[in-house]
Amino acid sequence: MRNFSPKIHFISGINLYIVIVLFYHNQVLFDIFTTMNANIIREITPLTPNDCFMIFSRVKTEFDFPLHYHEEFELNLILGAKGAKRIVGDHIEVIEDLELVLIGSNLSHAWFTHQCDSKEITEVTIQFHKDLLDERFLKKNQLSFIRNMFEHAQRGVLFSRETIERLKDRLLSLNKKAGFDSVLELLSILHDLSTSRNIRTLSDASFNTGTLHFNSRRLEKVFQYMNENYNKDISLAEVSRIANMPEASFSRFIKKRTGNTFVNSLNEIRLGNASRMLIESTHSIAEIAYDCGFNNISNFNRIFKKKKSCTPKEFRDSYSGNRIFI
User: Fold this and answer.
1) Which helix H or strand E contains 302, and what residues bound it?
2) What is the spatial distance between Cα 102 and Cα 154, in angstroms, rounded to a whole number?
3) What is the architecture of the domain spanning 217-318?
4) 157 — phi, psi (to 5°)?
C-alpha cells in the first residue's frame, strides 16, 4: 500500500507555512448509521488569530475523522470518492466523484467511507476564520454575493459539478501561492463560487447546529486580551475588569453568550496555540505547555487528551514528516 502523506499549510498575512503531516486518526470512530446519536466532537483547529487561512492537502484511502464542528468556515474539495457518505447538519447523502462543500461556523459535518472503494482519494480542506472578512466590509455592494453565500453556508452549501470542474485546478494549486497573493486568490475563488449557478443548501433551516452568535464589544475586548496574553496567568478578576462587570455576572455572561465558561474559553485558546507549536516547532512538550500558559505539565496533558482524544506526544508524532516553510 502506498504511504501518502497529507500536507497542512498555514497562511498568515506575510508568510506561507507549509508542513507535511500525517493524521493521527487510524480508524473510523463512528459507524455511519450511529454517528448522529454519538457525541459530536468540537474541534479546536491550529488556526490562530494571526492566520488568514489554513490548507490541508492529502491523498488517502478512506475517511477517518468523526462527526465534528468548529468555529472556522471550511471549504472542502474531494476528488475520486464516489460512494462515500456526507453528513452536514441533519442532511445525509452519498456523494459523487467530484465534491465541493462550504461549511459554516459551528455546523456539524463529516465524510465517511461507506461504499467508496477508491484507493486514491484527493482531499483539499481550506479553513478560515468566520471574521476573515469584516462584517461591515461584507455589507458593501460588491460583496453581496459572498455575504449571501456565507449566510447559506450556515446550512452547508454544495456546489455544482460544472463549478467544481471550473475551479478545482485553482483550489489544488492554491498551496503554491504565498503570502498576500494566496489571500487574494482565496478571495477570488470565494467570489467565483458565490456567483456560480446551481448552488444547493444541505441542512434544514430549522436544524439546531449549536451556532452561537454574540455581538458584544465586551467579549471582543476580553477575547482579544486572552489571545494576546494566553501565555501569562489570566484570572477571572482580570477579564471581569476588562468587561467592566462583577465576576459572578461575567461568568454567567460569557457562558450564556459563548456556551463556554471563562476557564474553558481560555484553555481552548491555549490549546490552539499549543497545537500549532507542536506541529511547527521542535520545543519540548513541557516548554510548549509553559509557553502557552499551562503551569502544570500534568494538567496540560490531561486537558489536551480530553479535548483532542490523544496525548500531546501522540499528536506531534502523528504530524511528523518533512516540514517545509515558505
Assistant:
1) helix 297-308
2) 9
3) Orthogonal Bundle (1.10)
4) -120, 125
Contact 140, 187 (CB under 8 A): no
What cell numbers appear for 118 in the block? 477508491
**Sequence spans of domains, the chain:** 7-201, 217-318
CA distance 261 to 257: 10
In angstroms, rounded to a whole number, what is the distance separating the alpha carbons of residues 291 and 274? 8
One fold for both 7-201 and 217-318? no
- Show pLDDT as tens, one digit a residue, over the chain (326 residues): 344 444 445 444 433 333 323 233 333 323 333 333 345 788 888 888 888 898 888 889 998 888 888 999 999 999 999 999 998 887 888 999 999 999 999 888 999 999 999 999 999 999 999 888 888 888 888 989 999 999 899 989 999 999 999 999 999 999 888 889 999 999 999 999 999 999 998 886 555 444 444 568 899 899 889 989 999 999 999 999 999 999 999 999 999 887 789 999 899 889 878 877 887 788 999 999 999 999 999 999 999 888 777 789 887 876 554 332 32
Q: Which helix (H) or strand (E) holds 304?
A: helix 297-308
Q: How far is residue 45's CA from residue 307's CA, in Å, rounded to a whole number?
A: 11
**For 7-201, which CATH superfamily applies?**
Jelly Rolls (2.60.120.10)
**Cell 468566520 -> residue:** 130
